[in-house]
Every structure is written in structure tokens, then in C-alpha cells.
Amino acid sequence: MYQIKPTTTTTTFFSHFTPKCNQPSFNLLIHPNSTLKIRIIASSFHRSIPDWADAVKERGVQKKRSLYTHVDWRNHRSSLRHLRHVLSSLSSRVILSLVPPVLFFTAFAAAIAAYNSALLLHLLPDFLPLLRASSLPYQLTAPALALLLVFRTEASYARFVDGKKAWTKLIAATHDLASHVIALRDFDIPVKNALLQYIIAFPIALKCHLLYGSDARRDLQHVLEVDDLAVIMNSNHRPRCVIEFMSHSIRQLKLEDSRRNLLESKISCFHEGIGICEQLMGIPIPLSYTRLTSRFLVLWHLTLPIILWDDCHWIVVPATFISAASLFCIEEVGVLIEEPFPMLALDELCQKAQKDIQEAIATENLIHAHLVAKQKSHSKEHSPNGWPTS
């Protein structure tokens, strides 16, 4: 029986265990601090590879996408694309993010192969079982795994398409509303210019609302006035705050009811776009489906070396590596495109919308000045009584 004597030291946590028996007494010191350090080191080593893979993945997610040009499409369909894709494998975030599971299952297959080989060479006791099984269960369940992966990827791609369509409508509605505002003549110019600034700022504010790590102040400071930017930055929902600025600006313009109603109806497209984007962000693919696919993949590859042992022996190691790298890569692509907005070139879409609206303003002013000058020159060519001058 041991008697625990706690110490009075507050900085060092250990206990004295003093056995009470007929033998000479001794003190056994156990230092939980040392045990804790060992656990921390083991935990950090255990988490080092997954943390590194996750860091690579998150850097890739936050990387800005670009819109395709004619040169990009030409490279995309180039006959050398396969060689280019293979040579860039070590820089692919999808492949690098799969290092932890692929390494684990490959090492597990090597352990199973080593165990069976040692048992066949009588290096282990004979009562231990040889790990092998029939391949019939795999032949029956392989279609189920294929369907799970296909449905998972298709559902993720459908969300990607929904996000792309939502932003296409938002950019089109931005251009449409801006063109109607630009067409307004002989109205309050400061209010009109402010309204155009809010229209340009809306896609940027929504982009920052959807993308993690975006700096809304940096992106909006060159678009909005300082006082407007301060109000928007202090709001809980910045895209809706920009819409409120647009609505108040439209009310300040002295327009006919029909024209005002037309402009306000264009803003409803912005509310609809916000709803679709927030729905895609807040509601993922049903988690039960994601968990089922993940568990199926894990159990499949844990039993794969046992199933293939009779036919492959040590070849189960490269076979497991190829299978894990292929199937987990398909599942990883589905997970990545499930959140569509980091996969879209939202920064370039916002910049293109801003550039197009500014060009439309300049073109409208140029055309208006040209028509006014043409009208004046045309009026000078005629006499006051309507007959042309000689």
C-alpha cells in the first residue's frame, strides 16, 4: 500500500509515494511535468504532418484565382497538358493535402505485409493468424464506393455551379443598375456619383463577406468616401449596408415614380444574390453523407492489404498507395469545391465590374459631349428661317 504525500511547492507538480512494508522504505518520484512534455512532443510529432498538409491546403484556398483569357484556354487544351500536370504534382495542394492519409495507409499495408511475411517465415509463433481474406466482399462493395464518390463529387460541383451562376447574375445586375443610373441626366450630380460608388462597392463588400481573410477596408478604401466607409465597416452585415446606401440615394434623386420603382426593383437582385451565397456558405452537403464517404474510404483501405495478400503479397504496399492516392484525391476535390467562392475569381470579377462601370461613365460623358457639339454645329449650318445658307 502506498501513501501519497503531496508537496507544498506550487511551481513543480509531483508526488512522493512511500511504500509501507517490511522491506526498506524508498521514495519513488514521478514528475508529471516530464510526462506532460513527452506527451506534448509525441502529440506535436503526431500532428506535424497533418498540420503541414492543412497549412498547404489553406494557402491554396486563399490564393487568388484569375479569369481565363485566350492564352489560358490555349494552354488548357494543349497536348502537353498531361506532362505539365504530372511535373507539377509536387506543387499541387490537392496532392500535398493527401500526404497524411496516403502515408498512413501505405505504412499500414507495409506493416500487414511484414507481419504475414514473418509469420510465413516462422519468425512469429504459429498460433498467430495469417491476415488474408477473400476478395469477393470487395467485388461486391466496389460499386457502392464508386457511387458514393461520384455522388459526392457531383453534389459539390452542383454547388460550385450555383455559386458561379449567383455571381454571374450579381455582376449582370450591377452593370444593369449602373447603366440606368448613368443614363440619368440633369439630376443631382453628387448623389448620382455617390450612387455609382455604392454600386461598384457592393460586389466588393459581398466578396469580402464570403471569403475568409479578406480585408474589406483595404478593398473599399479606393471606392468609397471615408465617412461612408466608416459606417459600412462598423455594420454587422456590410453588403446589406451598401444596399441601404443605394436605396437612400435613389430616394434622394428627384425621379418619377416609375423610374424610381425601376431602380429599386434592380436592387432586389442583390438581396436574392446575398441569400443564395449565404445559403451556400451556411449549408454544406449533408454531413452524414460526407462522414459515410470518409468512413467507407478508411475501412476500405484498412482491409485492402488483407484482401490483396493472397494475390499480391508485398505488392499490396504500392497497390494500397495507388488506391489511396486515387480515391482520396477524388474525395478531396469534392470537399474543396463544396465551398465554391474560394474557387471563383471573385477579385477579378469585382475589378472587372468596377473597370467596366468607370469606362461606361467615361463613354457616356464622351458620347453626350459629342452629340451636344454635333447638335450645335448642325444648328449653325441652317439659317433662322430654315433655309440652308449659301
From TrEMBL:
Transmembrane segments: 94-115
InterPro entries: VCCN1/2, YneE/VCCN1/2-like
Mode of membrane association: Multi-pass membrane protein
Protein name: UPF0187 protein At3g61320, chloroplastic-like
Compartments reported by the entry: Membrane
Keyword Transport appears in the UniProt entry: yes
GO molecular function terms attached to this record: voltage-gated chloride channel activity
One cellular-component annotation, GO: membrane
Chain's gene name: LOC113850128
Transmembrane is among the record's keywords: yes
Keyword terms of this UniProt record: Ion transport, Membrane, Transmembrane, Transmembrane helix, Transport
GO annotation, biological process: regulation of photosynthesis, light reaction
The organism of origin for this protein: Abrus precatorius
Entry-linked Pfam families: Bestrophin_2
Main location: membrane
